[in-house]
Each structure stands twice: as structure tokens, then as C-alpha cells.
Amino acid sequence: MKKILCLVVLMASISMTAQTNTELLKHFESYYKQMKSQGDVQGVINAMTHLNVLQPSQKRLDTLAYIYVSEGRNLEALNTIGIDNNATDSDISTEVKALALKALNQPQRAVVFYEVLFQKTPNTYLAYEIADLKIQTQDLAGANASIGYGLANVKPEMKKAFYEMQQPYEVSMKGALTYLKALISFNMNKVDNLDQAIGLLDEAITMDANFNLAKISKDALVAMKGPKKE
């Protein structure tokens, strides 16, 4: 009799737990929709975190990480999905890892994920990012190859944003790629290639007169040449 009573109590407990979880899921699903409609990002994060605890889902984790990285919360994004390069990673997961690691100044790790994205969908924008990261890691041959792809496939309407000034600005992607080409040339030989690098920066500035970063770089290289001899 005691065994039967214990079994009944256990089954009732399981039923109540399942009912409670179902109610909680419905609650946080409604809460998520409400926070989303209000544009409350932190509310959306809270709702998705609770939903994932109640009903774990890799898709939900990927989305949560993407929200974090979109808000500039890069460490939280990586803590959510990790930093390993897994063959089973979704495109969103790979993009999050690429963006977060780049933002955290981890070019060696970031470029791995940018290359995975490029292998899936080759395009000029990704070629630029890969070249930029490879310059930082001194993989100049790899950077040059990416620049070659970018210049071969760039379209006139493509733009690249820069943020070193208080007011962000855009230049043509071709101008941005030419700027990187100048950096590669200079890094390959900082003495013999100085004039070539300055010439490429002049090209970039000619394409986009507002290209502030190219102007700063050119002034720095010209200063390295020293005063002209009479």
C-alpha cells in the first residue's frame, strides 16, 4: 500500500512539474513577444535566457549571442556560444564569433571565422575584412590574395564605413581596398616600397576626397621620407 501511495505521489509530482514548465514556457514566450514589440533589448535577452533554461536550444543560443554582439557585448556573446570553430556551427554562430573576436582585438582567432564565412559565400566585403585582419597578423601574402579577389569583384556602388573620426564616413570599397594595398606594400618593405605605398594612398584619396584615414597614413609616410634636400 505504501509503495502504491509513493508511486501516486511521484506521478502527481511529475505531472505538476511538467504543467509548471509548460506554464513558464508560455509566460516567457509571451514576455519575449512583448519585450520585442517594445524594442526592449535587455528584456528580450532575459526572456530568451529563461526560455533556453526551460527548453535548451542551440538555435536560441545563437540568436541570443547575435543580440549580444549587436549590442557590443562581445564577451557575453562568446560566453554564450564559445570560441571554438565547430563544423556544426550555424552561419549566425560563425558570424558572431568573427565579429566578437575582431572587436576584442583577436585578429588571429577572428580571421578563422571570416574565412569560414568566405568559403560559404565569397564576396568583396569579407575579402576586405580578411585582408585587414591578415595585415594585422603580418600574413601579407594572404592579405594580398584577398585584396586581389576584392579588387577583381568590387562594384562601383559598394561602400566601406570608417569610424576613426567623431563623425563616421563612407568611402568606395575600391578606395578602401586600395588603402589596404598600400599598407601591404609598405609592410613588405618599409624602405624600398615607401614611394609605392604613398602612390597607392594618393589613388585612394583621389577616389574619395573625404578618406581621412588614407590622408593620415599618407602624411605619416611622407614624414618618414624626411625634408626634401635642396
Helix content class: over 70%
Q: In percent terms, what proportion of residues is strand? A: under 5%
| Overall pLDDT level | 90
Report on the biggest sheet.
Answer: 2 strands, antiparallel
The CATH level-2 architecture of the domain at 122-230 is identified as Alpha Horseshoe
Distance between the termini: 111 Å
Q: Please, how many helices?
A: 11
Number of strands: 2
Structural category = mainly alpha
Secondary-structure element string: HHHHHHHHEEHHH
What's the CATH topology label of the domain at 122-230? Serine Threonine Protein Phosphatase 5, Tetratricopeptide repeat
| Order of strands across the main sheet | 1-2
Please tell me how large the radius of gyration is: 26 Å
CATH class of the domain at 122-230: Mainly Alpha
Envelope shape: elongated
Low-confidence stretches: 2-18
Brief characterization of the structure:
The protein is mainly alpha-helical and 230 residues long.
Characterization of this structure:
The protein is mainly alpha-helical. It has a domain at about 120-230: Serine Threonine Protein Phosphatase 5, Tetratricopeptide repeat, CATH 1.25.40. It is built from eleven helices and two strands. Strands 1-2 form a two-stranded antiparallel ribbon. α1 packs antiparallel against α2 (about 40-55) and α6 runs antiparallel to α7 (about 125-135). The longest helix has about 35 residues, at about 1-40. The radius of gyration is 26 Å and the shape is elongated.
